[in-house]
Write a structure and sequence with these properties.
The protein has one domain. By secondary structure, it is mainly α. It has eight helices and two strands; from the N terminus they run αβαααβαααα.
């Protein structure tokens, strides 16, 4: 693809991300049943490190958009985009029928002069307590890593494994910023993998 092709795909990807979040915001306010809340000692032992917000949000979106520039054709881009729509449908169904929320006490902090805390407070203006499990951040990061591993040149060899460092870092950031329970992480990764496998099977 040429420069204009990648520009069109990039704009399309940004619009999809913004549009996808509208479904996420909708289901935050509309549940089939009241959201449940977990309370585990393991989660309480995980420290609160606001600086990880720069991984949680600062690294998250650039890596997703980087995926656009690894696509060899419009067809490949469309198939990749479709896999994210499949993931969105899966997430939406679970968020609606089996809502889980994080404890309110996790967000009882004072956004002081720290840039990280102010950034986290900005994120929390949009990302409310509900829609905890499975972690959408981990799901999307896992699906992105699988696509990167498939589309990046095989000549990179073992360097391709670095693609899977992305969901690992996002998982850690989700825990250290108190955005998710430990129980949200593995289901999130599983959802990303299922969306990838299902899309490949459907389009094969």
């Amino acid at each position: 693809m040429g420069a204009m092709d990648y520009f069109i795909c990039l704009v399309s990807a940004i619009v999809m991300i913004i549009g996808g979040y509208q479904f996420y915001f909708f289901v935050q306010k509309h549940h089939y049943r009241p959201a449940r809340e977990f309370d585990t000692r393991l989660d309480d032992r995980i420290p609160f490190w606001p600086s990880w917000v720069w991984i949680y949000s600062g690294l998250y979106y650039p890596i997703i958009l980087l995926l656009v520039f690894t696509q060899p054709s419009f067809q490949s881009f469309n198939y990749t985009a479709f896999s994210f729509l499949v993931l969105l449908a899966m997430q939406f169904a679970v968020f609606y029928f089996f809502p889980v929320r994080i404890p309110a006490r996790w967000r009882r902090y004072q956004p002081d002069g720290s840039l990280s805390l102010r950034m986290l407070a900005f994120v929390h203006r949009f990302d409310k307590y509900d829609n905890s499990i499975p972690s959408m951040h981990v799901s999307v990061a896992t699906l992105t890593a699988l696509h990167l591993h498939a589309t990046l040149p095989q000549s990179l060899g073992n360097w391709l494994l670095l693609a899977f460092l992305f969901p690992v870092l996002i998982s850690m950031s989700a825990l250290f910023t108190k955005q998710h329970y430990v129980a949200d992480i593995l289901p999130g990764a599983a959802f990303g993998w299922i969306a990838y496998v299902f899309t490949n099977w459907l389009l094969s």
